[in-house]
Write a structure and sequence with these properties.
This protein is an alpha/beta fold. It has helices spanning 89-97, 131-144, 164-173, 185-188, 193-200, 214-226, 284-290, 326-330; strands at residues 13-22, 27-33, 49-56, 60-67, 79-83, 103-110, 122-127, 149-155, 178-184, 207-211, 234-237, 262-269, 272-279, 308-313, 316-318, 333-335, 339-341, 345-349. A hairpin with a 3-residue loop joins strand 3 and strand 4 (60-67).
Length: 350
C-alpha cells in the first residue's frame, strides 16, 4: 500500500499498523500504534469506533467506520476488526492490502454505543461482525465491573465465529459471571423474535446492547419488547458507510455570529456546563466549534452518530437523522451536526 505520512487535517492522525490478526477467512484485526504526542486524543470508551481513510483510484479516498474490538482496560493498543462485506470496497481493501508497518490515517475515537455502568448485569447481542463493539464492552465489563454478562452471538456457521478462541478463554476464566450462547444458522436457521424472547426472558431486567445486521437487530428489538424490557434499556449500534469526506482539508472556520434570531442553550460536555447563544440557522456542532469547544463529531452529515447527544429540555429540528431509530428520537437523542433550535431555550447533554 502507499504509506501515508502527513494527515490531511488537524483532527486526523497517521497511525502505524503494529499487528495484523487473521480472525477468520473473512475477517481480520488491525492493531494500531498511535504517535505518543497524540495518544491522549485516542483515549476511548468501550464500544466506540475509528474512522479510517482508505485509498481509492476513483475518488482519491473513502472513509469507513470500524468498531474498536479492544478494551481500553485490557489492551495496550487500539484494535479494529474488519469483516469482508459483499461489494464492500473498504473492507476488501483493508483485508487484502494492509500489512504490519503500514501507516493509515484515522480520526480519533467516536460513538455513543458505550456502557452506561460497567457494574450492571448486561445482556449482549451480536451477529457476525457486530461482535466487534460488543467484545469491547464485554471485556471491559469483566475487567472493571462486577455484574454478570450474557452474550448471545449469531453466525452463519462455526468457521464464521470471530474471536472464538478468546471467547472460550474468557468464558472459562469468568465462569461465574459470563455466559456465552452461540447460534449457528447452519444448524438452527435464522433466529426468530419468539426464539430470542424465550432465551431472553430470564434476563429481561438487564440492560441490553445490540449490534449486527438490521434484520437481526429488528428481531432483537421485537424479542425484548415481548419480554417487557423498556426501550430505554436497549442500546443499538448501526454500521453505516459514509458518503462524505471527514478527512477533507479544513477550511477556515466560518464565524457563527449572534445576528438574527437566536436561542440559548446549556450544553453539558465532559462534566462542564457551557451557556451559549445558538443562531437558528446554525447547527449545534457549528456553534460549539465556533466557541472553541471540543465537540465530538466525524462526518458532519448525520451518517456516523459521533455527535449523538440528548435533549434534556427544548426542541430541535434535524435535516437528516436516518441513523437514529424513531424510539431514539422519542427518547431525546439528536445529532448535533444536524440539529437547529426550535425552542427559545434548550438543555443538551453529551
Amino acid at each position: 500500500m502507499t504509506t501515508v505520512t502527513t494527515p490531511r487535517n488537524s483532527r486526523s492522525v497517521v497511525v502505524t499498523v503494529a499487528a495484523v490478526v487473521e480472525e477468520t477467512s473473512e475477517a481480520r484485526s488491525l492493531v494500531f500504534d498511535v504517535p505518543p504526542e497524540r495518544r491522549d486524543e485516542f483515549a476511548y470508551k468501550p464500544g466506540q469506533f475509528l474512522t479510517l481513510r482508505i485509498p481509492s483510484d476513483r475518488s482519491g479516498s473513502v472513509a469507513r467506520c470500524y468498531s474498536l474490538a479492544s478494551s481500553p482496560f485490557t489492551d495496550d493498543l487500539p484494535k479494529v476488526t474488519i469483516k469482508r462485506t459483499a461489494d464492500g470496497y473498504g473492507s476488501h481493501w483493508l483485508c487484502d492490502h494492509v500489512d504490519v508497518g503500514d501507516r493509515i490515517e484515522v480520526l480519533p475515537p467516536a460513538g455513543a454505543f458505550t456502557p452506561v455502568d460497567l457494574d450492571e448485569d448486561v445482556l449482549l447481542f451480536a451477529a457476525g461482525s457486530g461482535i466487534t463493539p460488543v467484545m469491547s464492552i464485554l471485556k471491559s465489563a469483566l475487567s472493571q465491573g462486577s455484574g454478570k454478562v450474557m452474550l448471545f452471538y449469531a453466525n452463519r456457521d462455526e468457521r464464521s465465529i470471530i474471536f472464538a478462541a478468546e471467547l472460550r478463554e474468557l468464558a472459562s476464566r469468568h465462569d461465574d459471571r459470563l455466559t456465552v450462547v452461540h447460534w449457528l444458522e447452519s444448524v438452527q436457521g435464522l433466529p426468530t423474535a419468539r426464539q430470542l424472547a424465550s432465551l431472553s426472558d430470564r434476563w429481561h431486567d438487564r440492560r441490553a446492547y445490540v449490534c449486527g445486521p438490521r434484520p437481526f437487530m429488528g428481531a432483537i428489538h421485537e424479542a425484548l419488547a415481548l419480554v417487557g424490557m423498556p426501550r430505554n434499556k436497549v442500546h443499538a449500534e448501526v454500521f453505516t458507510s459514509l458518503s462524505g469526506d471527514p478527512f477533507a482539508p479544513e477550511v477556515e472556520q466560518i464565524p457563527v455570529g449572534d445576528e438574527g434570531s437566536t436561542a440559548t442553550v446549556e450544553v453539558q460536555l465532559d462534566g462542564d456546563t457551557h451557556n451559549l447563544s445558538w443562531p437558528r440557522a446554525a447547527t449545534l456542532v457549528d456553534v460549539m466549534l465556533s466557541k472553541g469547544l471540543e465537540v465530538p463529531y466525524s462526518c458532519r452529515e448525520g451518517e456516523c452518530g459521533s455527535c449523538a447527544c440528548t435533549v434534556i429540555e427544548g426542541e430541535v429540528s434535524m435535516d437528516s437523522a436516518a441513523i437514529l431509530d424513531p424510539e431514539d428520537i422519542a427518547n431525546g437523542y439528536i445529532l448535533a451536526c444536524q440539529a437547529r433550535p426550535v425552542s427559545e431555550h434548550l438543555r443538551i447533554e453529551f
